[in-house]
Each structure stands twice: as structure tokens, then as C-alpha cells.
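Q: Hand in one record:
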Amino acid sequence: MIHSADVQQLISHWWFAYDNALYDEWPELFTDDAHFVCKTDTGMTAFEEFVNVDVRGRDEVLAWQVQHRQGSPSPLRHGGENVHISENRGHEADFRSYIRVSQILNGSPSNLSTALVCGTVRDDDGTLRIAELLVTLDTEDSSVLGERKVV
């Protein structure tokens, strides 16, 4: 059985290692068949080309992540919030969470983005690894929930 604290530890480790470009730590965090998707919720931003990806396999995931990280600000901070298991299948568990992404502008923290993060972690020969990571960046303006059109 996969425990929520272990999922929290793994996802926190990933965001810390990503932000600090600890490239040597990245391979051990993903399964061989890892799947990574990143997109925006509207698909209509000026930076779609920079963030949109759908890659499979650890090597492809890591290659894209390195390229993306090298083109991103530093310092950069991804704060994972509300990480919780949504389904547990024993050797594999689905999770959901949020991230808040910040950078430093003019000497002060500045929010860069927020996102919904969903994924799957798997026990891979006794080591918990990320098997799937789906990131949807929030770009739509907030509005009153009861007044939103359902699509």
C-alpha cells in the first residue's frame, strides 16, 4: 500500500530538485515508462509553445525537463500544496495537488503561475517513482463559479 506521506515526499523532492536544477537526482524520481504532460487551461497564451508538451519514457521526459528548466527563471520555486491520494491500487496510486510558482522580480517574490497537478506514482522494485505527471497551468481569469458556463 502506498502511503500519502510517501507521495508527498516524492512530489516535494521532485519540485525541489527541479527548481534547483539538481539534474543528477531527476532520473531516480521517474519510472522508465514515465509520461509527462504540461499545458495551459485555455490554450491561448503567448507562451503555449514553451509549456506545451506530451512526452513518454524517462529519457524523453528528462530531456524536455532539462531544456525547459534551462529556459526558465532562476531562482524559481514550485510550492506543492494539498498533495493527496485520489486512488490507491496497492503498488500504484493516483494523486492530485496544486502548485504555486514564483520568481524574484526587483528583489521581491512575484507569482508566476498556479497549476493543477495530477499524476500516478508507482512502487518500482521497492522505490516510489513518478509514473505520470500532468500539469495544467491556470491562465483563465477567475470568475464567480455559479456564473460560469459549463462546457
